[in-house]
Specification:
globular; 5-stranded antiparallel beta sheet; SH3 type barrels; alpha+beta
Length: 93
């Protein structure tokens, strides 16, 4: 099992947002802060228990780079990046 870090893409396993994918904006020992640019925008990210998300992938994309540098991308960048990453993942298998 991979450790969830800032900039990773995770999937929610519990709650109303179950099955949705998000970028991790912040992470501490018990909780992660998530945004997808659509349902959960960067202005109001979702705080979620680590046990309620699963690791999907650690992307190499501009959104991850910005988050790691401490800058926030815009919602449109997050949405487009998530869509592209998940479409590529579905195409690969």
């Amino acid at each position: 099992m991979r450790t969830i870090e800032v900039g990773d893409v995770v999937r929610s396993t519990q709650g109303r947002d179950r099955g949705r994918c998000f970028f991790v904006l912040e992470a501490d020992a018990r909780r992660v802060t998530l945004a997808d640019g659509k349902l959960r925008k960067l202005a109001s990210p979702k705080r979620k228990n680590r046990r309620h998300v699963t690791f999907v992938l650690r992307p190499d994309c501009p959104v991850r780079d910005k988050v790691l540098q401490g800058r926030l991308p815009i919602d449109a960048e997050v949405r487009k990046s998530l869509a592209a990453l998940l479409a590529a993942g579905d195409a690969e298998g």
